[in-house]
Amino acid sequence: MHKFILRELKNINKEEELAKIGYDSSYSSQAVPKLDFKLIKVYDLSPAQANILKQTAISVGADCMTHREVITGKIEKSDAIITASISELKKIAQKLVFQPFGLKMLSEEILNLCDYTKNNITKIIGILNITDNSFSDGGKYLDIEDAKRHLLKLIKDGADGIDIGAESTKPYSSPVDAATQLKRVLPVLDFIEKENINLPISIDTRSAKVAEEVLKRGNYIINDVSGFDYDKGMPEIIAKYNATVILQHSQGTPDKMQDNPNYNNVVEDIYLALYKKIEFAKSLGIENIIIDPGIGFGKTKQNNLDILSRIEDFYTLKRPVMVGISRKSFLGNGTNEEKDIYTLAINSLLIEKRVDYLRVHNVKLHKDFTDIIKNA
Predict the structure, then answer these.
(1) Could you tell me if residue 8 is inside a domain?
(2) Of 54, 95, 299, 328, catalytic
(3) Is 354 a catalytic site residue?
(4) 1 in a domain, yes or no?
């Protein structure tokens, strides 16, 4: 009796695998989309929309799962999960163009998703905390000369950008007023401008006043860890200066965000919250948006691990993704040196998944690692 050998193929070069089995190379470009499968969740469909979507998926050889009462119409809304190859998804989209109930718009979203690919190289963003109480290096760079030296070291170590913060937002920390933040930040910006440093610079602040004073000076990025929730004047300032903004998810303010973090489904809840923030920003004309799921900001250790394991879910928002896990408490109570190793271990997986930006304290360690990967 013939014994069959099977191997599940994952993370492969599909064109190379087709060539190995002798597949006709002139048809490879048409075959590859049939080998690339996606599992897509669509939210808040009416029963009519869900029924049409399900039947359309089945008609092209794919499948679509919906609430069991969709067929009876006893529910008002249903989510749906489509499982299909890229080739099948495009066929579904083509058919939805001719369907009623606004499904033409869903067709466009499906096609956009099919065409969206991430082939970027992860950028390493160095952290410069000009604070007296940051969890890792509070007080170390509060003196302007120390801050300058560390800034230059981060650049020498190969940072692709610098994130400067004058307010610690660690768990149970208190707010820092705008005047104090500006007293700490502006001398560093003076130095950056004097030295003609051209790296991207983001300012970690929740204050609209701080943001405006910074943006008056030039093309800086604003990193709002509250995602517009703390200072309601922040969106207007970002729009006024047509600035790039990092919108982070945070459940609550730093002084109480770790008291009792609670989610129905942490990845889905954060995904939908970031989606709403993006749509709100776009409604104000803000287009340059980076998103951050906010590791450690109102999350348990398990929440953090769930987010990191499913970071690719957030790519569907079609915005650059930033992640900051560097030296955070869920990595344990070791020294900074030990935490840097744990940080790199997790970040190596995020680099493999092509996360756009990683905020780190130890730039050199990460740049040395990425150089190894590039030269492998």
Answers:
(1) no
(2) 328
(3) no
(4) no
Q: Give the 3-state secondary structure percentages of the chain, helix then strand then coil, rounded to 5.
A: 45, 15, 40
The residue from 95, 148, 327, 359 that is catalytic is 359
Note if 327 is an active site residue.
no
Domain containing 78 equals: 14-115
The Cα 20–Cα 37 span in angstroms is 21
Here the CATH number for the domain that contains residue 253 is: 3.20.20.20
Cα distance between residue 285 and residue 288, in whole Å: 9
DSSP for 177-193, written as a single string: -HHHHHHHHHHHHHHHH
43 residue type, one letter:
Y
3-class DSSP state of 222 = strand
Q: What is the pLDDT of residues 162-192, one digit of tens each?
A: 999 999 898 888 899 999 999 999 999 999 9
Quick check: pTM over 0.70? Answer: yes
Which one of 66, 95, 115 terminates a domain? 115
Number of domains the chain is built from: 2
* Residue 24 token pair: 């006709």
319-367 residue pLDDT tens: 999 999 999 989 988 999 999 999 999 999 999 999 999 999 999 999 9
Contact indicator for 192, 218 with CB cutoff of 8 Å = no
Helices 208-215 and 178-194: angle between axes, nearest 10 degrees: 20
